[in-house]
Amino acid sequence: MKRWLVLSPLALLALMIGFGACKSRVKPESNEILFWHWMTDRDKVFQELAQQYEQQTGVKVLVRLYAPVEAYSQNVSVGAQTNSLPDIYGILGDTKIKASFIKAGHVLRLDEALDADNGAWKKSFYKEALETSYFPPVNQFNVPQGIYGVPIDVMTIPMIYNKKLFSKAGLDPNKPPETWSQFIEAGKKLKESGVTGFVSGWAEGWLIYSMATDLAHNLMGADKVMDTFRGKVPYTDPQWVELLGAFDELKKAGFADNSMVSMLNKYAEQAFATEHSGITFNGSWSINVFEGMNPNLELGVFRVPALSNKFPRTVWGAAGSVFNVNAKSPNKEKAVAFLKWLTEPDQAKFMLGRTKNIPATKGLEKEFPAIINDFAGMMDKSIHPSRFPVSEEPKVIETFTKGIQAILIGEKTPAIVSREVQAAKEKSLKLNP
Amino acid sequence: MKVFWRGIFSSLTRFRASIVSNYLFVLPALIMFLTFNVYPFYKVFQMSFRDWNGIDPGGGTFIWLNNFKEALFYDSTWWESVRNAGTITLLALTLQNFLALVLAWIVDRGVRGAQFYRSVFFLPPILSGVVVGLVWNWIFRGEAGILNRCLTQIGLGGWTHAWFSDIRTALPALAVVHMWKGFGWAFIILLAGFQGIPRELYEAARVDGANEFSVFWRITVPLMVPVFTLVGVLTILGSMQLYDLVVVTTLGGPSGHTEVPMFTILRELTDNPRFGYASCLGVVFGFILVFVSIVQLQVAKRTKAE
Questions:
Q1: Would you give the DSSP letter of residue A61?
Q2: Can you give the residue ranges of every domain in chain B?
Q3: Tens of pLDDT along B94-104?
Q4: Predicted structure pTM score
């Protein structure tokens, strides 16, 4: 009796867990597609398009928004662990995370669908946009070659400047800085005219990292950057120290917002939109935000200024909102068909009009507002970690971005930071040889 | 005889039935407790010995104590975050609780508008951490911040500061926000404690000629020890587990100077992602909190005995 009394709750618990687990795994094929996303600004557009799709095909698309991105990522992660991912979802994170999902069998390889009809669907995208979901035959994660995601829109992250504030500071609004020293001079002049020279949400490490990788590509070229990621070139190399020195120069010039290193990007967007700052470093998506806050802004864009003239100036970009199809879903064909429909020019044009994001689908350039055209025009020289042949370890990136923050607050010198990053790199190489 | 045995049998049946019914009443709560407390803790503990990214099927590989070795001896970022949380906790334990104690004592003395103060002081804790963070971000922000503008207006322009971006002020500024939000809890609990002390004790002491300080030191303080202990433990647990304010104000910056353990654990979960290591940090952190709480309870017990 006693034993029974003790065991009964445990048995009931086991049954509950068992039933819970079963429920999440058994999902018959249906005329409904479940679509998870994280973009609050695009939710309404997706809902409307889903309704249109149902009217046209009879297939119901259930659009589910999970925000903020942390909550979304956790949902996706739990979905992967319990085999309850939706039919369509996006993986947020670096190539390593994407590779883990693919290797665990959660992502459908899309080459067959993309190559059908002489590759018509594949050809409809910007090449760079598709490359963000492509794994080459030989890759460090041992993922089978192929394309695993469908891009909906793309972005570029250049420098954005306020033309009116440039004029007020005596700068030519049609001649943005091209070199780092010109950028420093422009920033000082903006400061003298009564506004902050530069602002960006550099509490968010990824924004610092994107500018730093642009500078690194310009200063030492892609090959040397990748060799550093491979562990062949140390971060203590003089060119890496020189790159870190650019941030030291930025600090010493004194025109950047003094609270930038603990500023979230949305505050930086506010500061720029309200004309408290002349230059910002932000993505193409921010145009919608700026217009919403201040429709009278006159904006221009330029690539991250050059530290050297040996290699081209790059811009982080081409990656954007990418969606994946759940390889374990019984509705995978329907999911692919929906994504194909979603990226057709009509739907892409609809999204462009509503969200002002650069579509991943080609052929709509004439529809772009002028400023979006400027952003899109930078895609040819774009770089992005998802297209790098080698990925840097997150711990090293963390040490690198924290180091740049430390330089910007005058806590550390470029030489010290370079040694710390190298130490983090050596540790990561030991853990993941 | 038959009647006797029937009586015994029916009593036994009733006894058994009452045991069964007692257990049945406890069962739902027990199931909930096992499902939502014991099982997750067991899973976290189990994962802390594994190297797993949270995605690969099979739950990764068993790596013995490697995660613990890394957390305890090699992860300086982790210990810096613990130290930051410890600093905030120390400030909250002393400044926040001292202020709460003084104000609760004053309100308990029947000051005019006591009801009003009670409501006002309890406002910050009921606000969401995100809202509080946004408001204080507005106050502490660099050049455009309200505090800096006020300082400039009153001729103290030299005192203006990038409060959240300077390594000397970022952590104290975050602690101020945290204390402002948490102070109301301590105030309400301490006030309830003061009001629970029988007034006759005070009257008797005064009749015996005790002055205000003696009354406070020899009657109020000893009787308030359990309340101080409760407030202390809650302050430690609340401050060490700070997260939302950090996300909204500094994101752990500048350069990790306001990073706290919950932030580090979540970053290991989502950015890196190392589920096994994050679980290990969770276990280590849990033990730190238990240890600190036990120490505090022991100190309180000894103080009460004295």
A1: E
A2: 2-47, 73-305
A3: 999 999 999 99
A4: 0.86
A9 within a domain of the structure (yes/no):
no
**Residue A61, beta-bridge partner list:** A33
- The answer to whether the CB of A70 falls within 8 A of the CB of A204 is no
Mean pLDDT by 10 residues, chain A (433 residues): 52 49 55 93 93 96 89 88 92 89 95 95 93 91 95 94 96 96 97 95 93 97 96 97 97 92 90 94 90 92 95 89 95 96 95 89 89 88 89 93 95 97 92 72
Count of the separate structural domains present in chain A: 2
Residues A150 and A166 in one domain: no
Please give the structure tokens belonging to residue A106: 């959660």
Q: Which residues contact A300 (CB under 8 A, 6 or more apart)?
A: A160, A161, A163, A166, A173, A174, A176, A374
Are A343 and A227 contained in the same domain?
A: no
**Co-location of A151 and A163 in the same domain:** no
CB of A271 within 8 Å of a chain B CB? The answer is yes
> Are residues A223 and A116 both part of a single domain?
no
The CATH architecture to which B73-305 belongs is Orthogonal Bundle (1.10)
* Structural domain that includes position A351: 31-155+319-387
Does residue A1 lie in a domain region?
A: no
**A258 has a chain B CB within 8 A of its CB:** yes
**Nearest alpha carbon to residue A87 among A322, A332, A323:** A332
CA of A386 vs chain B CAs: smallest distance (Å): 15
A143 Ramachandran zone, left/alpha/beta (phi>0; psi -120 to 50): beta
Selection from A229, A80, A213 nearest residue A140 by Cα:
A229
Q: Does A264 touch chain B (CB under 8 A)?
A: yes
